[in-house]
Write a structure and sequence with these properties.
70% of the residues lie in helices and 0% in strands. The protein has 114 residues and is mainly alpha-helical. The longest helix has 28 residues, at 24-51.
């Protein structure tokens, strides 16, 4: 094991504590994670639940891995493999099946029929 528990104990004994480097990139990343990725994502999730069925909204969550895969390929040049493409297709087929099986959500106000 090239870097195990004994190595970590040695680092802790030498440094006494681990502290992040408080530079602009680190603080910006933490703020992004807290406000956009957490509060923003949960807010959008609850707004989507108001406008659509829970099954449809949850099915859309399965787009996260394929979108991340494509984003990493576009931004960072991550290689795409055949297994990744198959996973993308399986996710998309599952989402299409769920989306077609759900009735559209009721968006208007209820009207009384006489």
């Amino acid at each position: 094991m090239p870097f195990g528990g004994r190595d970590l104990r040695r680092v802790r004994l030498v440094r006494r504590r681990f502290l992040p480097v408080l530079d602009q990139g680190f603080i910006g990343g933490i703020l992004w994670l807290v406000f956009v990725a957490t509060f923003g994502a949960w807010s959008l999730y609850y707004i989507a639940l108001r406008k659509s069925s829970p099954a449809r909204v949850t099915a859309i969550l399965y787009l996260s891995p394929p979108v991340t895969m494509i984003w990493a390929w576009l931004m960072f040049g991550e290689p795409l493999s055949f297994a990744m493409a198959v996973g993308l297709l399986v996710s998309l087929v599952g989402i299409i099946i769920v989306a077609r099986s759900q009735k559209p959500a009721h968006t208007g106000s209820p009207t009384a029929k006489a």
